Amino acid sequence: MTEPKTPPGFEDMLAPKGANKQRDLKTFAIVPHHPGGFMNPDQLAKIAEVAKKYAKVVNVTSGQQVMLIGLEREDVAKAWEELGREPEGLLGPRCRGVRFCPGIAYCKRATSDAIGLGTMLDKKFRGMEVPNKVKMSVAGCYLSCTAPAIRDIGVIGLAADSYRIVVGGSGGHAPRIADLLIEGVNRHQVLEICDKMLNYFKEQAKPGERMSEFVPRVSLPQIRQDVLGPIEGLPRWPTKEEEENKVLQGPQPPMAVQTGGQTSCPMPPTN
Ligand code: SF4
After folding, report:
1. What is the dihedral of CA 57, 171, 146, 91, to 10 degrees?
2. Across-strand partners of 95?
């Protein structure tokens, strides 16, 4: 049996491994990943050295990464090699790199660790296949410099090892503020909840559905029941039926959740 032949010039239409074709349809961009955009001066100097040699321009992306733009096709593999990395790049329906801020390591306003938690989330979930791309971010305090309220999953530091998780936000063509999933959880619980949430999304979402469409379609009470319900040590949330009954019974006082022996209302601080 003869091998199917690709049309002449077909190879030239594809981007080399680890590169994105640019608007001019001739040159390419590469993005060496550094979690949260954090790197030491030597790593930055190496990027500058390679950029000087092969790129026309450098851009800091909205995903906190340094993008080298304008590489010729034949230079892409050389650039990756000189960076000392395997070609890499994320396109399509996958979890993107996690955005996170300096948190308690460097920021004077921080209440929580964002670098440690953000790095763990990035390592665990970046590249995971999902029905549509998932953007996540971690903020070291409620000031939310990494915009967790408009991410598919956002994590906001409340205290030393206490975080709030919000889901279903979007800053895209149909902007949406994320819904509060839970608050007062520690970093290990954040990892477990994100893992369960992403797998639940993977199993239950329609093809191509974004988290910002999935969350309102499935409903928050149902998601809490299915995602948080099986996790030990979390507060019990009202079921979907209890939530619906509450609506029928009229306005209710703000719902409180138990957080390590303290009770707190799931609202951001007002000061
Ligand atoms: S979110 Fe808070 S901790 Fe993070 S950079 Fe902004 S002010 Fe600092």
Report:
1. -50
2. 134
Write the residue with the smallest CA distance to atom 2 of ligand 1. 141
Q: Give the chain's radius of gyration (CA, Å).
A: 22
| Residue carrying the six token digits 């993005």 | 31
Q: Which domains does the chain have, with CATH numbers?
A: 16-83 (3.90.480.10), 99-264 (3.30.413.10)
Can you tell me the distance from the alpha carbon of 261 to that of 87, in angstroms, rounded to the nearest whole number? Answer: 48
Pocket test residue of 98, 141, 146, 155 for ligand 1, highest count of atoms within 8 A of CB: 141
Which of 95, 84, 90 has its CA nearest to residue 30?
90
Which ligand 1 atom sits closest to the C-alpha of 112? Answer: 3
271 residues of the chain, pLDDT tens digit each: 555 665 656 556 678 888 989 998 899 999 999 999 999 999 999 999 999 999 999 999 999 999 999 999 999 999 999 999 999 877 789 999 999 999 999 999 999 999 999 999 999 999 999 999 999 999 999 999 999 999 999 999 999 999 999 999 999 889 999 999 999 999 999 999 999 999 999 999 999 999 999 999 999 999 999 999 888 888 777 777 777 776 666 555 444 443 333 333 333 333 3
Q: What is the DSSP string of 192-229?
A: HHHHHHHHHHHHHSPTT--HHHHHHHH-HHHHIIIIIT
